[in-house]
Amino acid sequence: MLKLDYMVVIKSEFFLALNQVATERGISSDDVLESIKLAVLAAYNKDYGQVIEDSQKEDDQKLEATIDKNTGETKIYENKKDVTPPGFGRIAAQTARQVILQKIREMEKKTMIKHYASQTGTIIKSRVISFDGKNVYLDIGKAEGVLPYEEQIRNEKYNLNDVYIVYLKEIKTDSFDNSKIIVSRSEPRLVEELFKKEVPEIANNTVKIKKVVRQPGERTKIAVFSDQNGVDPVGACVGQKGIRVKTVTDELGGEEKIDIIQWNSDDSLFIREALSPATIVSVEVDKEKRRAKVFVNEKQAPLAIGKGGVNVNLSSRLVDFELDIVQAPEETLPKEVKEDQKQTSEKKTETKKEKKLSN
Predict the structure, then answer these.
(1) Which of 78, 159, 253, 256 is the most exposed place for a label (fewest CB within 10 A)?
(2) Under a CB-based contact definition with an 8 Å cutoff, are residues 270 and 263 in contact?
(3) pTM for this structure?
(4) Is the pLDDT of residue 171 over 60?
């Protein structure tokens, strides 16, 4: 009797500990008990499977497992008849322990996935832990994030233990119910969230972000505005001596240029701002066709277009107009532009004369 009481105490302590683990890890104790039942039935089926099959063929009887929540005592029933074999408790317990631990890990993973699903659309610090082909795997805290090749910044090199700020983009689940946390370094909203972090005026909604367009690793254009008098939205984002925009640029690898644009409801003025750093002579807007002719002088055309057309393409996406860069006729150029061209031409002529004399 003493031995039986001792075993009851041991089993009770085990289940108390199990319930404590379930509570601490946010797992339902009922789910844990169901896992134990499945494990016990699996163990029973392993050693007595043929007996079950023959019995079910004859009587179509159902096999069930019961667990006493107080003692942990487990029994097998077939058509409400106790068919627990002698000595089965030890075998069942050993098998159950293994399966329970696996079930707990699975439930913990689902809990973590649920947690990170609620965090999508935010940024998080991460550390590179492994690679799979072109995919990069990151430690994001309580779970692992996947940075697919298409979500990486072009030309950015990823090494073990490198630390990056990433954007939690989505949770992808396959047909086997396996979930992956997808993170991004190329998502435009990464830039938006970085500015929210660095600029208090954005965080408190004094300055609003209208739109962000991006060519990852090369250039980003972000349109901002404020409806409060006396607030300079561009200046707020740039920061004193450019410290705020530099912090964001550094987080993106240090190579990506960021143009902060003042949003304007006037399409013509917005287009002028969007094509920064180029200086625009004039703009002809066709609102119906969402198309605009942008006139620039010869010197400003390369700036307006940008290397590989990046500047004009990003500007077009930002303002939602198709932009045609056109060299302005000489007679339409403002006086200051003509004067600048004249001085440039004179300098080139003087340089040529100096070269001839030196030869």
Answers:
(1) 159
(2) yes
(3) 0.73
(4) yes
